[in-house]
Amino acid sequence: MLIIKYNFMVNYQSLGFVNTREMYAKAVSGSYAVPGYNFNNMEQLQAIIGACLETQSPVILQISKGAREYANQTLLQYLGKGAVEMMKVMAEEQNLKEIPIALHLDHGDSYELCVAVIESGFSSVMIDGSALVYDENVALTKKVVDYAHGHDITVEGELGVLAGIEDDVEAAKSIYTQSEEVEDFVEKTGVDSLAISVGTSHGAYKFKPGQKPEIRLDILREIEVKIPGFPIVLHGSSSIPQDYVAMVNKYGGKMEAAIGIPEEQLREAAKSAVCKINIDSDGRLVMTGMIRKIFTEKPEVFDPRKYLGPAREALKAMYARKNKEVLGSAGQV
Ligand code: G3H
Ligand code: 13P
Ligand code: ZN
């Protein structure tokens, strides 16, 4: 992968972002979770910002390694800056409070990548060493923390392996986070938040038909006892709404066995030390469902605004509902 080195440092504050420290402190004490929503293009970003501003929710905008490769890292960074400026104008127009926005690297897989995004204006990074053996995960995570904290950037680490696709690392089965390790990991690395594996899973096919989705709240509680009040992150938390699965299938798609995490379980987890919940696949599903529907019902349409616009509206409605009914982040600014 190409990692562009900047010979100057773009400070995230100058782009209008905040790091995650205060967001997480408020989320832990307020018993809700901040959304970690991924974006790869303008319509997703507009939907996320519009929904979070209207519901008055803080938000963590997430860019994966794949998103950087797809959409160009420099463009994404300035789309993020544009989103902050747009949010300020919209807040003024709609007489709403401005919302805090963090720009976060999702599933960073190397020290060099973390440094590159920090230099280009990100306010938060994840270093995902979960596929490494424990000591190597500790060493890599600490190296990133030492660099990031020098620039007041917050770092998310990961312990335990989620089932599904962790970017390029495919984990065949979930390896739950061991509560005995978390205290040592947090202490040795100095991370600001920790992604754990307690039954969630990446992608649209989280469970096989007949399998019972379950967030292991018992393991989560054990972890909370070991590191009280420490911000915990849940990845792989899409719920794969079945009305949109049906829409995709009705209009020519093929996603028969797609299944996600029940929203009531996420609501329970958000009341605990879980302070960020990552959702990407649900957004992909909503956009795809809407676009397929319009292509089928209005085959004469060829202006991308005529199908991306309605997809963006459906996406915005989905994010707003998540903030209100699942994460509890609505009204928290
Ligand atoms: O957890 C992974 C996110 O959904 C990002 O996926 O690497 O395909 O952009 P991606
Ligand atoms: P989903 O695939 O469940 O949306 O998870 C997204 C995620 O964890 C991003 O890091
Ligand atoms: Zn993830």
In short:
This protein is α/β, with parallel strands linked by helices.
Kindly estimate the percentage of residues that lie in beta strands according to DSSP: 5-15%
* Global shape: globular
Uncertain regions spanning at least 5 consecutive residues? 165-172
The strand order across the widest sheet is: 1-2-3-4-5-8-9-10
Rounded to the nearest angstrom, the distance between the terminal CA atoms is 38 Å
List the defining traits of the structure above.
binds 1,3-dihydroxyacetonephosphate; eight-stranded parallel β-barrel; two-stranded antiparallel sheet; binds glyceraldehyde-3-phosphate; binds zinc ion; alpha/beta
Note the topology.
Blueprint: H1 12-15, H2 21-30, E1 34-38, H3 42-54, E2 59-64, H4 65-71, H5 73-93, E3 101-108, H6 111-119, E4 124-127, H7 134-149, E5 154-159, E6 164-166, E7 169-171, H8 179-189, E8 193-196, H9 217-226, E9 232-234, H10 242-250, H11 263-270, E10 274-279, H12 281-297, H13 304-327
Parallel strand pairs: 1-2, 1-10, 2-3, 3-4, 4-5, 5-8, 8-9, 9-10
Antiparallel strand pairs: 6-7
Helix pairs in contact: 3-5, 3-13, 4-5, 6-7, 8-9, 10-12, 12-13
The structure holds glyceraldehyde-3-phosphate, 1,3-dihydroxyacetonephosphate and zinc ion.
The site of zinc ion (ZN) has 5 residues, from loops.
